[in-house]
Automatic annotation (TrEMBL), chain A:
ATP-binding keyword on record: no
Domain Metaxin glutathione S-transferase: 173-236
Swiss-Prot/TrEMBL keywords: Membrane, Mitochondrion, Mitochondrion outer membrane, Protein transport, Transport
Alphabetized InterPro entries for the sequence: Glutathione-S-Trfase_C_sf, Glutathione_S-Trfase, Metaxin1/3, Metaxin_GST, Mito_Protein_Transport_Metaxin, Sam37/metaxin_N
This protein's record includes keyword Transport: yes
Residue ranges occupied by any Mitochondrial outer membrane transport complex Sam37/metaxin N-terminal domain in the UniProt entry: 23-142
Family classification: Belongs to the metaxin family.
Subcellular locations according to the entry: Mitochondrion outer membrane
Designated name of the protein: Metaxin
Disordered: annotated span: 302-321
Underlying gene: Mtx3
CDD domains reported in the protein's UniProt record: GST_C_Metaxin1_3, GST_N_Metaxin1_like
From TrEMBL, chain B:
Organism: Microtus ochrogaster (Prairie vole)
Domain Metaxin glutathione S-transferase: from-to ranges: 187-249
Protein name in the entry: Metaxin-2 isoform X2
Lineage: Eukaryota, Metazoa, Chordata, Craniata, Vertebrata
Record-stated family: Belongs to the metaxin family.
Short name of any one Pfam family annotated for the protein: GST_C_6
Amino acid sequence: MAAPLELSCWGGGWGLPSVHSESLVVMAYAKFSGAPLKVNVIDNTWRGPRGDVPILTTEDGIVSQPAKILNFLRKQKYNADCELSAKQGADTLAYIALLEEKLLPAVLHTFWVENDNYFTVTKPWFASRIPFPLSLILPGRMSRGALNRILLTRGEPPLYHIQEVEAQIYRDAKECLNLLSNRLGTSQFFFGDTPSTLDAYVFGFLAPLYKVRFPKVHLQEHLKQLSNLCRLCDDILGSYFRHGPMGISPAGPEMIDVNLRKLTQLVNKESNLIEKVAFLHHCFPMDDNLRQSPQLLPRKLPTLKLTPAEEENNSLQRLSP
Amino acid sequence: MSLVAEAFVSQIAATEPWPENATLYQQLRGEQILLSDNAASLAVQAFLQMCNLPVKVVCRANAEYMSPSGKVPFIHVGNQVVSELGPIVQFVKAKGHSLSDGLDEVQKAEMKAYMELVNNMLLTAELYLQWCDEATAGEITHARYGSPYPWPLNHILAYQKQWEVKRKMKAIGWGNKTLDQVLEDVDQCCQALSQRLGTQPYFFNKQPTELDALVFGHLYTILTTQLTSDELSEKVKNYSNLLAFCRRIEQHYFEDRGKGRLS
């Protein structure tokens, strides 16, 4: 723990710290458990690994897959699951298996196999971050790897055609999203008020699907209808990734939501109810803003670990009329 | 199955009751069937027993090729053929029998998640052990898989299947795992199942569901199959409530109904 742990991963965009699911899972877990990670974003130079990303470089060597990285962090005492019971730990494993079996093929298909999406969004994005001439080879290889994985786990031998499995994998993915939404219900995170490994995995798989702008979007539409899952992603992004590495920041109404949330959280810390109501009416005399995000106000948010107190006061002064 | 075929099957299925002559096909029990196929077949048999639906088990050497999806076991009911536990559960539900109707939404989500856990970890570990571990593959799997066929077909088919399985392992990231890591994953999976089962008789308290059938199929097969080493069954034997669970289902659904001991 004396030497810094470095994580090499793909960079961010569309408001996410990273566009790659597995990198996001590791980043989210590190934030939840408080592990000090130095994030090295893969860029256009020849430096750094590019193959099996995300990769954690420690003083003893390198650790490569997300499951192994999370195990390593746990052994270093950065554990986000310390408040879970044994049964909840078992549930975590089961839900992660569900995500990998049912949701991952569809996410891979949306990003890498669907022609419109791949050629207009994914390939240019990755190619711009890989130096020439690797940028001609690597995205194609990743795409073929994704197609392979989908066909080998879902296709029926000996024909292995993608059309036969497309409908099936999207149906499974929608069912999986519905199941996750049912399990989350109205609670803040999956197991109470603090995020855990399962929240990291769900966030890692869902956030790119939710935020990245694709031409072919029917799975994204389905996800947007499940408002509690979208709220989970926005919460985690707002609370844990505001100061971290971020791509293009979202402008407009999302910014107002974030500030509303900050204010509401500050207000919730006050114990006097009358003061709360008067305070909110003072800051937002127009009722439109409140109506825009009805689900935010009545909830109690957990205390933010990262934001220092002075910054909140500054933002307050900016917003009060 | 494609969506159209599934819709067709469920429409037709809903109109007819379960016939007396339903048959389940699997590979030859004594010489040919492998660990993973036996587990799947036993899971389906347990599920049908739990639903009180009679089925006759028929062993054929080419069961894998007869199956519509290439996987055993498959059932032949009336004039339809359905393979694998997932589609069979849906088919049986279309006929009006279901074990998971009493569960609420959250419990159904949990049940599906745990079934995926078993498929993801236990089944993949069994496949790994059979085909990617050189000792087991050479001594047991090749000999068993090719046993009904004459030379050189037995070697060719065995190598072809092994290549296919190794390709799949590589695609999902298990290609570089060592046997110890695989056994550790099995241990983790059994621990999760054991914690979920706790002291209850079945996973969702009083009534068994398809999850119980699936877990029973896999665990019973692991416990009773002779492999080159006993490490896999040792991992399962560490959890006494899982052993009691297997014993309970075996007694209740197989021995009491006069089927005799499962081989």
